[in-house]
Amino acid sequence: MLVPTENADSFVTLGTRTFPTSGSVVRESIGTLLVVLAVISFASRIEGQVTQNAILERARNGDDTALSEMEKKGDVQDLQILLHDPKYAGKFAARLTLARMGDVEVLQYYACRSLTVDVSQVEDLMRQELDYIGGGFTIEIYRRFLDSDPRFIPQIEGVMEEARKHGGDSWPPLPSTLALLRLHKLVPDSPIPDVSPLQLQANPRATGEIKARWRSWIDTHQSELKKLKPTPRGVIFDSGRCSGVNEANAYFGR
């Protein structure tokens, strides 16, 4: 027999069995649903952490594809862990990845290296690192190299003199010339034509004119160029900020 109740949260009896009314059922269902959702959320976090730890372990074992996955996910934290891990052998790649992601600490490191007075270091820096980093940051460095001849000419003249004494006829190119050969690849939409090393060698006067055109074009397009990531924002091009760059070279695996 069904006994009606006035309270929606009380019980009704049918024969010898008692059933909760609809209010109790709803609250019970909601409580169960919340527990299930909490369990699913916790399991998802655990699964995500396990996956992330697996990527980190792959990187430590020398799998460079793991670094690419970290870059796609924007995982700066794990890349910094690798960079500052004394036992990790892949610091060169981890540092480049962080630079491409706009890590200011790493970009400052490259800015300091670009302030070198040793011309022999510049070409490797450009070819192996700055060309890969790209963006407004590398454009800013190459723009500065366009004005760097007074810094490097005395050293190159000394190298030329030594080479002639020993019958040699080769010496390192000026960093401004190296920058000139790279800028068009970084900014292909500029109206300044690409040039080859042979073209510059055949016409030294034209080299100066093209450098002047690039200086002017970059200086008048700063607002657009500084939007190209990674940007130089937050980076200080001052040798006074670079007193520890030699120690950093050793620490970061260079």
List keywords for this structure.
254 residues, mainly alpha, two-stranded antiparallel sheet
Describe the overall structure:
- The model is unreliable at 46-50 and 250-254 (pLDDT under 50).
- The radius of gyration is 31 Å and the shape is elongated.
- With 254 residues, the chain is mainly α.
- It has a two-stranded antiparallel ribbon.
- Helix content is 65%, strand content 3%.
- It has a domain at 122-235.
- Helix 2 (64-73) packs parallel to helix 4 and helix 9 (175-186) packs across helix 11.
Number of helices: 13
Main pleated sheet: 2 strands, antiparallel
Q: In angstroms, what is the radius of gyration?
A: 31 Å
In which range does the helix fraction lie? 55-70%
How many extended strands?
A: 2
Q: Topology as H/E string?
A: EEHHHHHHHHHHHHH
Which spans of ≥5 residues are poorly predicted at pLDDT below 50?
46-50, 250-254
Going by helix content, strand content and strand pairing, the class is mainly alpha
Q: What percentage of amino acids are in beta strands?
A: under 5%
Quick check: average pLDDT? 83
Strands in their spatial order, largest beta sheet: 1-2
**Shape, per Cα inertia axes:** elongated
The end-to-end distance, rounded to whole angstroms, is 87 Å
